[in-house]
């Protein structure tokens, strides 16, 4: 895709639109010396080189990758206007686009047309809103989430002044259902957070089974699909359908288009199955909501000003890569195929050990050390990551995840427990190009052992 061509198109269309309103003289206070601008821009470009190559498949560290060119063009096109999707008079066009993309996300998760939802600036804010509604519906009752859930849940419980209950995980890093039910019997929990795709291991928690248990104790179920939510597109083909199909019966769900949705930061989304929860957002403004009798997005959001450009970027992307298995789903499928194949290659290697079978596109593994102890594994994993990322020639960028002694014992009892835990190598293969680059990546990791 010729990004330069489409950026030029976006700029030309913007100039044509603005010219329709007549010429005016830009204020002198906004004028800058071209030489000064050029110098500052050169400094900016030089400083931006102090980044890891998120765009390249040799970067397999954290959940980072550049947005799709369509998202860049869509975002820029709207950014030049700078609409604010808080109120309809701040962004009528992009507010309509937001409703359309949110409707598409709701359909992906199996929600009916009678849902409530909007985009947010992040998954953290999206989860905050879901827990805010949960607190409003079950005052005095807390929130349960697995010990492998994202830290945002414990943090947001603190913000909201409600009690959080971490639930132990099983041998695959998923919420322990027996421990969950024991906790629910106390009556202290009003909402259970379930994660189909944990950020450390990519473990798919059994949404359908959690839902069955929670309903027996009158507890809501919130799905944190910030990372894994878009894998719903692979349900029934590449992935077992039950956890993903159960999302349609859960009370709320969060997903981050700025992860697997190919969008720039920040673009999250929160959706509620029951639109009546909008009553908890009710507020008034003395100057904002007068241009339309339609619902303003700011009336169903804890955030006020939000970038309309985020909606435009997502809208244009989904026009080209729709929320289908053959559309955006193929982008995710490539990363998952890479993860599954790399796991097979690791199992056959002499120097690496697979820590846990990948379920999505995250692979965890560790060097097979001698002696095979937690302390030796920890040191070797850290050394491989550091050596790879600082190599002057052919660098690779991995990350590590900390695994407890108990987690290691459940998965690898052959590793001597001479420490409280160990770091293992962790690679996120969320760029589809990882599929073709995998042999090079695997060979380079082996060369660092």
Automatic annotation (TrEMBL):
Keywords, comma-separated and alphabetical? Lyase, Pyridoxal phosphate
| SUPFAM superfamilies in alphabetical order | PLP-dependent transferases
State one Pfam family annotation.
Pyridoxal_deC
Q: Which InterPro entries match?
A: GrpII_AminoAcid_Decarb, PyrdxlP-dep_de-COase, PyrdxlP-dep_Trfase, PyrdxlP-dep_Trfase_major, Pyridoxal-P_BS
User: What cofactor does this protein call for?
Assistant: pyridoxal 5'-phosphate
**The keyword Transcription belongs to this UniProt entry's keyword annotation:** no
- Residues in the signal sequence: none
Question: Looking at the keywords, is Oxidoreductase present?
Answer: no
* Superkingdom of origin: Bacteria
The family annotation for this protein states: Belongs to the group II decarboxylase family.
Its protein name is: Glutamate/tyrosine decarboxylase-like PLP-dependent enzyme
Q: List the source organism.
A: Lentzea atacamensis
């Amino acid at each position: 895709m010729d990004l330069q061509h489409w950026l030029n198109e976006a700029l030309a269309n913007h100039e044509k639109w603005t010219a329709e309103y007549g010429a005016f003289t830009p204020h002198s206070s906004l004028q800058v010396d071209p030489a000064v601008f050029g110098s500052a821009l050169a400094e900016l470009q030089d400083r931006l080189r102090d980044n890891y190559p998120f765009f390249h498949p040799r970067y397999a560290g954290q959940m980072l990758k550049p947005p799709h060119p369509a998202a860049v063009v869509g975002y820029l096109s709207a950014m030049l206007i700078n609409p604010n999707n808080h109120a309809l008079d701040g962004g009528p066009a992009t507010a309509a686009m937001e409703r359309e993309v949110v409707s598409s996300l709701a359909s992906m998760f199996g929600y009916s047309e009678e849902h409530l939802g909007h985009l947010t600036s992040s998954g953290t804010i999206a989860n905050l809103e879901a827990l805010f509604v949960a607190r409003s519906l079950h005052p005095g009752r807390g929130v349960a989430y697995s010990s492998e859930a994202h830290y945002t849940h414990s943090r947001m419980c603190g913000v909201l002044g409600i009690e959080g209950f971490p639930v132990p995980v099983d041998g695959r890093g998923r919420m322990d259902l027996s421990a969950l039910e024991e906790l629910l019997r106390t009556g202290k929990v009003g909402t259970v957070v379930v994660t189909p795709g944990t950020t450390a291991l990519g473990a798919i928690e059994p949404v359908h089974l959690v839902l069955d248990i929670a309903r027996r104790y009158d507890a809501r179920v919130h799905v944190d699909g910030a990372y894994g939510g878009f894998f719903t597109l692979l349900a029934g083909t590449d992935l077992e359908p039950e956890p993903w199909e159960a999302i349609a019966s859960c009370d709320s769900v969060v997903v981050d288009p700025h992860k697997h949705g190919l969008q720039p930061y920040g673009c999250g989304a929160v959706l509620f199955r029951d639109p009546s929860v909008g009553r908890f957002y009710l507020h008034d403004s003395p100057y904002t909501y007068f241009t339309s009798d339609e619902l303003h997005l700011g009336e169903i959001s804890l955030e006020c000003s939000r970038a309309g450009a985020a909606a435009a970027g997502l809208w244009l992307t989904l026009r080209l890569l729709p929320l289908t298995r053959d559309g955006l789903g193929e982008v995710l499928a490539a990363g998952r195929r890479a993860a599954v194949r790399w796991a097979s290659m690791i199992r056959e290697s002499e120097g690496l050990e697979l820590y846990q079978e990948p379920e999505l596109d995250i692979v965890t593994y560790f060097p097979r050390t001698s002696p095979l102890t937690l302390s030796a594994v920890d040191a070797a994993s850290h050394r491989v990551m550091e050596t790879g990322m600082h190599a002057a020639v052919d660098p690779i960028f991995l990350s590590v995840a900390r695994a407890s002694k108990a987690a290691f014992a459940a998965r690898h009892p052959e590793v001597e427990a001479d420490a409280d835990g160990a770091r293992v190598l962790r690679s996120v293969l969320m760029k589809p190009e990882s599929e073709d680059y995998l042999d090079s990546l695997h060979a380079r990791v082996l060369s660092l052992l």
